[in-house]
Amino acid sequence: MMDVNEIRRYLPHRYPFLLVDRVVELNLGESIVAYKNVTVNEPFFNGHFPDHPVMPGVLIIEAMAQAAGVLGFKTMDKTPQDGSIYYFVGADNARFKRPVVPGDRLQLEAKIVTEKRGIWKFECRATVDGDLACSATIMCADRKL
Fold it and tell me: Which residues form the active site (predicted)?
């Protein structure tokens, strides 16, 4: 289990863009399960949408990419302080199945598919109460700062 303080060691993101609150399962070189608590206080809800708040799909994909980033960094035993950064470089087959709204706990899952020359591919899913909200194949690149 990783709390937000440890997560911040592996991700360079900060408020309002840190989208992983806790890691509940981590299998190095394999998979991660994390979550994001979605609250009405999120700054994006002011404009998306004022009378019907829905978490933007691009931020759901970003949250999955951040969880995948934690998995990649932990697997490589690197941190941004070591001079390494993990860029989100692609998403394929993104599908959205249900809206994510304030009060939801967005569970983020990522599994490593491949890694070649610092390019990682992950199969990712985001669920709420077991219902699929989003799935995508996400690619990240490990690069020097």
Answer: 48
